[in-house]
Amino acid sequence: MDAADVAWVLRGTVVSSRPDRTLSIRPDQLVVVNQRGYISHLEAADTAQSKALLSLVEAGQVGRERVVDLGEDGWVLPGFVDTHIHAPQYINSGMALDKPLMEWLEAYTLRAESRIDRDPHGLGARVYAKLVQRMLENGTTAASVFGTISVEANLVLAKAFLDAGLRGQIGKVAMDQHSIPTYVETTSSSLSSTRSFISAVRELVAPLAPEQQIVEPVVTPRFVPTCSMDLLRGLSDLARETGARIQSHMCESEGMVRVCKDMLGGKSDVAVLNELGLLNERSLMAHCTHTTAPDLALLASTGTAIASCPLSNVYFSSERQLPLREAWTAGVKVGLGSDISGGYRLGLDDNMRWAVGISRMREGQRDAVRVAPEDGEADEGSLAITWQESLFLATLGGAQALGLDGDERRVGVLEVGSAFDAQFIALGDRRSRVDWFDLADEAVDGQRDGEEGATAAAGHKVTLEEKVEKWWSNGSEVDRRAVWVQGRRVYERDES
């Protein structure tokens, strides 16, 4: 390997999800990242090739500033993929969660977005600069993002992501009905501005190398109640023509489901979106908490992915939550979303924990909450998911949902050929909430050295997997030392 092509060398533990949703934890690995931001080598540090690469470091051919020792209590894992976030709603994050969904939109959300559109280069720039900073601090390296209805404000948003080095699929929201008077479009203006936004974002990234084109436009009907059939049909045609991805909301709450059926003559939003060609292998639908077994089968057959937002859904979906295990069994791709500001927590850590907790509650109430399989299908077993499976949701599952798991741009995993979108977790900071106690030299059952029956190896030394689990349960931004996107270090913790 040419030392000049080496951007980073990392040595230590590598944590990454597998496609079967299990977790791989590999100690003492050597990771080499090339100048284009891809992993070019990942093997145990004691192999012949790893030793040859380490010799380049020892010889000074790779600068020490590019070498990272992950340490005994640290590891590198894929960056988090936030599959659903409303960037302008960061204004309201952590408050204004006191109303049902449809009332909440009018009282708080649409007004916050309208404020951004009125002052995109002032308020908008300040909000988006803080948002991307916080996302990186929380380990988020890619996101599917709803913006506002303004092309100008959404370009400010796209530039904020690009300047920060954060991977983003940015959507100019389209809506031509059922909004507040000061924040709505006509059908024709919505379609023309969506087309303009797609062109502008592609022009923005065109001068960059292909691997650095980390921001892309997404066709974004807000959701069925705010879009006329003519607008939805036009957006479907535009997505097909431009090849842009599609994102929207679907069957999020009981109120939304009822409103859709009232508007659509008894049809569900799932049926209408499918009829208009908005459900396909490039589509991502947020929430889907009220999906039925036939709905899940349809999503699987069309290749449509789900953005699950457990924390937000607790507020807006009443007793219904996404039938996650059933979705997996049906073959639907699922990732995690923060849903700022419907969810108050920007990072995905709490959403991983809520995903596990909600699934365990569903298992405890399985007869009441199960989405029954079709005739002849096997029972999918426990509805509960493990903490390891929730890490899959936050990383590889999210990458699959965003279409970022292909050969040309593969994220969500750490393996040779994948983009180096990663976060370095290092335990031991005095401010960390993660503690553990090695008991390898302790005696069993209170017996002390020299007492009859005492054993030599009576205690237990905390394993790597247990440390990762403790971090999963109690970790915070304090434990995150650095973050990379496409091999560029985009965040480094201030050690002062």
Detailed description of the structure:
The protein is an alpha/beta fold and about 500 residues long. It has two domains: about 1-80 and about 415-440 and about 465-495, Roll (Urease, subunit C, domain 1), CATH 2.30.40; about 80-400, Metal-dependent hydrolases (TIM Barrel, Alpha-Beta Barrel). It has helices at about 50-60, 100-120, 120-135, 150-165, 185-205, 230-240, 255-265, 270-275, 295-300, 310-315, 325-330, 350-365, 365-370, 385-400, 465-475; strands at about 5-15, 25-35, 40-45, 65-70, 75-80, 80-85, 140-145, 165-175, 215-220, 245-250, 285, 305-310, 335, 420-425, 480-485, 490. Strands 1, 2, 3, 4, 5, 14, 15 and 16 form an eight-stranded mixed β-sheet that branches. It has an eight-stranded parallel β-sheet with strand order 6-7-8-9-10-11-12-13. Helix 3 runs parallel beside helix 4 (about 150-165), helix 4 runs parallel beside helix 5 (about 185-205) and helix 12 crosses helix 14 (about 385-400). It is globular. Residues about 450-455 have low confidence and may be disordered. It comes from Rhodotorula graminis (strain WP1). This is Amidohydrolase-related domain-containing protein. One of its GO terms (biological process) is guanine metabolic process. GO terms for molecular function: guanine deaminase activity; zinc ion binding.
